[in-house]
Write a structure and sequence with these properties.
The chain is an alpha+beta fold and 421 residues long. It contains 13 helices and 15 strands. Helix 3 packs antiparallel against helix 4 and helix 5 crosses helix 12.
């Protein structure tokens, strides 16, 4: 969340940031509540001063035997105490409303982010590899996978419903191979610590990373308990350090982990949902960083490179997009998307999104660090995360890019040890 003091002192800047993100957040309502609360607190402090004064008078009157004055002072103190209780209730109500408002205000775009009202403002910053030219008309991934017997959307639909793929035989082996390959790559070559985290989290964890309260309707929630299936490993991994204070010497902290991810895709009506392009359950390798504030932008570029290394090892042509203000997530201050070209579908598919959140998440989950050589001082860390990478669409792109005219698949050399090719 944003710092209330920062909002109060930078109203125009915050207002411009909200507009850049196409946010409908009512900043004036928050500022009105803030003004009202501060006035109420000031009134409470004055009433408490009067109560303390009345208490001192009671002691003094009792010592001098002034019984009538004692009764009057006690009556006055009771009246003041009643007013204090009333103001405390008012402040409590305002606090609850302000907390809800602060949890619904998005992060502001970083100064580097292109300002645009639509995703058309996204910028391609670089490309790697060239789309493969085939001597035949390339097929879409689902046709290839069906022929090989590797993926069945029909059986997934029978078990769960539309948007739940079933991987079979070498298709299942491919999924497992990619998970192991990516985890090995990030831990052995990029220096991440591997973690294994729950796929079911509580409300506090979802609120901490910004999925709640704004996007609750988009999440899968248990009916009888206040738990959620994770939309991304970002949620449990980032919450690993909730309410902790780190040492500066330990930064950056870098975690990577595999989880299944669950998304309702409630807003996907009318979008391409064929095959693996948009599913409700998919596997993903996540990268999460906790860094010093001044290192945030530098660490974001390194995070993107870590995701790019995976795609290069998989020999997949891709492009890197710097997202504009309108296309960024609720919590992100700056974000890059990595998109891979699928020659059969003739589309670019996002397989990784790498974001810097500044101290937005750290304030929600209360993660700080102690600067070296400074006593009794702590500051909020900055958090980052990125897909390293998402598997469903990566499988899609591997099938379409690796296909032969005979319908076979040529897998990249890096995967051969994991597939026992």
């Amino acid at each position: 969340m944003l710092d209330l003091k920062f909002i109060r002192e930078n109203r125009d800047l915050v207002s411009r940031g909200l507009k850049a993100k196409n946010s409908k957040f009512d900043l004036q309502e928050l500022l009105h509540c803030d003004t009202k609360r501060r006035a109420a607190v000031q009134e409470v402090e004055e009433l408490k001063r009067q109560r303390n004064l009345a208490n001192d008078q009671i002691v003094s009157f009792k010592k001098s035997g002034q019984a009538i004055q004692v009764e009057e002072a006690i009556s006055q103190m009771r009246s003041v105490s009643q007013k204090i209780d009333e103001f405390d209730k008012e402040v409590g109500g305002i606090d609850e409303k302000m907390t809800n408002l602060l949890l619904n205000i998005p992060n502001l775009p970083h100064i580097d982010v292109p300002i645009s009202e639509t995703p058309a403002g996204n910028k391609v910053v670089r490309e790697w590899g060239k789309p493969k030219v085939f001597s035949f008309k390339p097929k879409e991934h689902l046709e290839i996978a069906n022929k090989q017997g590797w993926i069945s959307m029909e059986r997934g639909s029978k078990i769960s419903g539309a948007g739940f793929p079933v991987y079979l035989g070498k298709g299942a082996r491919l999924e497992r191979a990619l998970i192991n390959f990516m985890l090995d790559f990030h831990t052995k070559k990029h220096g991440y610590t591997e973690v294994w985290v729950p796929a079911l989290v509580n409300r506090q964890s979802m609120t901490g990373t910004g999925q709640l309260p704004k996007f609750e309707e988009d999440m899968y929630q248990l009916k009888h308990e206040d738990y959620f299936l994770i939309p991304t490993a970002e949620v449990p991994i980032t919450n690993l350090l909730r309410n902790e204070v780190l040492n500066e010497a330990d930064l950056p902290v870098k975690y990577t982990g595999y989880t299944p991810c669950f998304r309702r895709e409630a807003g996907s009506y009318g979008k391409d949902t064929r095959g693996l392009s948009r599913v409700h359950q998919f596997d993903k390798i996540e990268m999460v960083k906790f860094v010093k504030p001044e290192k945030g932008i530098e660490e974001l570029e390194l995070l993107v490179k870590d995701a790019e290394d995976i795609l290069q090892a998989l020999e997949l042509p891709y492009r890197v997009l710097l997202l504009c203000s309108a296309d960024m997530s609720f919590s992100a201050a700056k974000c890059y998307d990595l998109e891979v070209w699928a020659p059969g579908t003739q589309k670019w598919f996002e397989v990784s999104s790498c974001s810097l959140f500044t101290d937005f998440q750290a304030r929600r989950i209360n993660v700080k660090y102690r600067p070296s050589g400074v006593q009794n001082k702590s500051e909020y860390v900055h958090t980052l995360n990125g897909s390293g990478v998402a598997l469903a669409r990566t499988v899609l792109c591997l099938l379409e890019n690796g296909q032969t005219e005979q319908g076979e698949i040529q897998f990249p050399t890096a995967l051969e040890p994991y597939l026992d090719c």
